[in-house]
Each structure stands twice: as structure tokens, then as C-alpha cells.
Design brief:
By secondary structure, this protein is mainly α. The chain is 61% helix and 0% strand. It is built from eleven helices and no strands.
Length: 179
């Protein structure tokens, strides 16, 4: 058995929580994190991992602040900030308070899930953005997070489709009241 085959077997036996923890610890800015990311993106490894929970992503360079991350993601989809915060359903003032770090942790992570869907992020980018916003995104601990992760993997970014899945499992809409 080669080292590569052994690594693939070990990663496939890890729980989603263990794998997420490993990826979050390594990060994409480290040499080990990049190597792990590249290994997970190889077709045979993706197929083996996909049997229990597929993770699809693209390598990103990680900015240091929520503000820089949002700017980078907005540039990628060619969207201006006013259009973005209106689609998120929040006021200009509230958006700038969150973006600029004046609110250290937004009161509800569903707002960040709306950010993720509008910005069309993949799983790893979503984990990163939520972490910058002070929230844990862990599909192995939360059915809500698992459904969002499933939508990201399947590239389902439509709010109605996401809400339909959430409703199917008796969970609240991504559009919280008062928020």
C-alpha cells in the first residue's frame, strides 16, 4: 500500500467534524493546508470522500478581516456593496457595522448564511467567512449547517430552494424576523 492510498483511507475514515477541524486548523494559507486541499481535490479522493459528504472548493488566499473578504468576494461576482446589503435584507448602517467590525458578532448567523448564498461561496469559503464573522459553521453538529453545506456543495444558491429544504426538516427560514 502506498502512502497516498493510506492517506486517502485515513481521510475517508474521519468524521465530518474531524475533517472540518483539520481543515480549519491548517487553513489554506499554510503549505500543509494547501497540500491537503490539493489532495482532497484529486478526482479519486473526491469520489471516495463524496460517498459520505463531498466538499467542493477552490483554493483562496485568506484575507485578514471580514471587510477584505467581503470586498474580494464582491469583486469576484461584480457586485457593488449597496446591491449586496439590499439583497441581504439589512440596512446600510447595520451592514457597515458588521463589515467594519463594530459589531463583533452579528446576532444571528443566518445573516452570514445569506451573505454566503448571495456571494455564491463554496464550503471552505463559507466556513472562513462565518469564522471571520464570529460564527462556527459545522455541518456535523447542526442540521441547519448541514443543509446549508449540502446546498453549497450542490451549488444551490436560490433562497427559495434553500428555504424549502430548511422547511422540509422543520427549521426556520434563512430570513429571520427582525433582521
Amino acid at each position: 500500500m502506498t502512502d497516498r492510498e493510506l492517506l486517502k483511507i485515513v481521510l475517508c475514515e474521519m468524521s465530518q467534524d474531524e475533517l472540518s477541524s483539520l481543515l480549519n486548523r491548517q487553513g489554506l494559507e499554510t503549505e500543509q493546508g494547501k497540500a491537503l486541499h490539493d489532495f482532497l481535490r484529486q478526482k479519486d479522493v473526491e469520489e471516495a470522500m463524496g460517498k459520505r459528504f463531498a466538499l467542493e472548493t477552490q483554493a483562496v488566499s485568506r484575507p485578514d478581516t471580514l471587510k477584505l473578504a467581503i470586498y474580494r468576494f464582491l469583486r469576484r461576482i461584480d457586485m457593488e456593496e449597496p446591491e449586496f446589503y439590499k439583497k441581504c435584507g439589512i440596512s446600510k448602517d447595520h451592514y457597515y457595522q458588521i463589515r467594519d467590525g463594530k459589531i463583533k458578532r452579528a446576532r444571528n448567523k443566518r445573516l452570514f448564511f445569506r451573505f454566503v448564498l448571495i456571494l455564491r461561496l463554496d464550503y471552505f469559503e463559507a466556513v472562513y467567512l462565518l469564522n471571520l464573522g464570529g460564527h462556527l459553521f459545522n455541518p456535523s453538529l447542526s442540521m441547519y449547517d448541514y443543509i446549508i453545506a449540502h446546498c453549497l456543495y450542490r451549488k444551490i444558491y436560490d433562497f427559495d430552494a434553500v428555504d424549502e429544504l430548511l422547511e422540509k426538516y422543520g427549521l426556520e427560514s434563512i430570513w429571520e424576523k427582525n433582521g
